[in-house]
Amino acid sequence: MNKVAQSEQLMAVADPDVLVLFEDWLEELEEEVVSIAKKTGSTDAGVIGEELGVSHSGASFLITKLKREGKL
Asked: DSSP readout, the chain?
């Protein structure tokens, strides 16, 4: 299943309050990724994942998203 379909399914069943909390949490993580990248000079998913306490794939997702948005 592709990511768009998964997102649409999540939005269809998730409580709006939970979605707001998730979006707030994701925004905080993104800010931390930018801060870590500036501090370390690295956008390596291993480095950022270790600093954040998230998986390599989670860090990779955040890095890719932020690069796509021009924030990294």
From this structure: --HHHHHHHHHHHS-HHHHHHHHHHHHHHHHHHHHHHHHHS---HHHHHHHHT--HHHHHHHHHHHHHTT--
Q: Does the predicted model carry a pTM greater than 0.85?
A: no
> Per the structure block, which two tokens stand in for 28?
């905080």
What CA–CA distance (Å, rounded) separates 40 from 63?
14
| Own/partner long-range contacts of 37-43 (Cβ < 8 Å, ≥24 apart) | 37/63, 37/72, 43/67, 43/72
**Contact status, residue 60 vs residue 45, Cβ threshold 8 Å:** yes
Q: What is the token pair recorded at 12?
A: 């269809």
CA-based max dimension of the chain: 39
Tens digit of each residue's pLDDT (9 = 90 or more) over 36-50: 999 999 999 999 999
